[in-house]
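pinging the channel bc i need a second pair of eyes. not urgent but kinda urgent?? the chain im working w is below, pasted from the shared doc
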Amino acid sequence: MTIALQGMGVSRGVAIGNVHIIERDQLEIVEYQIEDSAVEAEVLRLLDAVSQGKQQLRAIRDHIPDSTSADIAAFIDTHLLMMDDIALTQEPIRLIKENGYNAEWALKLQRDALVAAFEEMDDAYLRTRRDDVDHVVDRIQRVLLKHAPLPHEVPDDKLDGFIVLADDLTPADTVLMQHQGIVAFITEYGGPTSHTAILARSLGIPAVISLHNALQYIEENDLIIIDGTSGVVLVDPDERNLACYRKQQQEDIHYYSGLSRLKEGPALTKDGVTIELMANIELPRDFDTVREVGANGVGLYRTEFLYMNRDNPPDEEEHYQTYLKVLEKLNGLPLTIRTLDLGADKQVDGGRKSGPVQSNPALGLRAIRLCLKEPTLFRPQLRAIFRASAHGTIRLMIPMLSNLQEMQQVLQMIDDIKAELDKDKADYDRDMPIGGMIEVPAAAICADIFAHHLDFLSIGTNDLIQYTIAIDRVNDEVNYLYDPLHPAVLRLINTVLQAGEKAGIPVAMCGEMAGETQFAPLLLGLGLRQFSAHPASLLELKKIIAETDTGQLNRFTEQVLAASSGVDIASLVRKQNLENY
């Protein structure tokens, strides 16, 4: 009998195959005391384990074919950099020396501290970086405990054609198994913004995550179907299901083969409306992909990585040199830099000194609130952005605005910095556009006020949806409520777009909703003309745009805005898409 299971689809596509279950033996970390005479040897044991862990990751990276895109290997490089970070080793070494802890226990304590700091972050993307800490620490612990390498890390072809099921996977696992021929994977845990989920999308591997208790229903070698779009997993499918999904696979192959031809040329609707397709970027090495998909530029450059895993914040010169390298890679394409968007939990990084623990950091001191309270963090970044603007097209974007006073404080600080640069006779773009992210309901409702003082707006749907519906999208117990089609969310988006149109300034969307192609016709109908999304989404967006006549969307959008539930709106969206695409 066929069993249907529902998880979270994070990488599109259909896969059919037999299951191979990856089971990690549980690590038993115990505490014991080290004799004074053995402390130095214990420190060396820890450092040797770190070194062996790095060797393992390098060996995995070396097995990646040269033809593989550089951004794929970069996920493994991220873990290598973490192993080089003193934040991971310095504190365990201190605990070994001062308290006589064994290396495993000292490393566990530091892992717990790092994870606790990440879990307090409001930004969902940054919060899921705790997974990277777990993956790196787990690898080191396995060396310390003398565990044998995991079977899937031994290169062979035993996984060819299989769908992998695991409680969780690391980016290294995913890359390795993709090159060993897996056709898809399922995990019981994980979030949509984890590096493993992002990597699955980059590799084009269908993936379903957060399929809780999957091991209760799926056994080794079971034949299953997974739909990475809907998150549905069918166990022991019948012939009818197999035929249906095999047909879908063939249609997908034909569909994606045609997308590469869309790289050149502008994004134009059927009725001749030009749409800007921009890329969301996190790390400097990601900029190579911007040109690969023909993006018009970068609509969101996250700068938080500069503050992570360090004791002191970056100075002005480090910011400046980083932005110059980015501009060089973009070679004339525009760059939108979002200023620091971190919370008040930066006890282990260069974002902020430790402070009182907040009971609800999502509503606490973060983003522009933190920057205004601690201008020694903010001013160096602003000065560096303005200095870099002399060397390329830059737009500055302020995150999490919630009231006019905050915006006025930022604009005054910008005026002061301009005066300083003028006094120093420094070159900069005196007309550099200043914009704001609309990701708080209060800002969306008052978008007309912000629009009169700023040069552009950008809708951050990830936070806007969370704050509007009052749910945490990475909390497994409530993330089913995360609904981009909630009437309140769409009405807020419409309010922002209308405010921008009335004020004569552009409005972009840089949240995940902008990259979801099923929402593109609706957003075009509402008036969105600038999309900023993960580069992997842009060619598909361009195809949808080319098939859309914005002049024929009026009735559809009126019905959507008049609907009273997300279910009704989803039905309207499905009907519109089925009839026209």
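so The radius of gyration is 25 Å. and The longest helix spans residues 39-62. — does that match what u expected or am i reading it wrong
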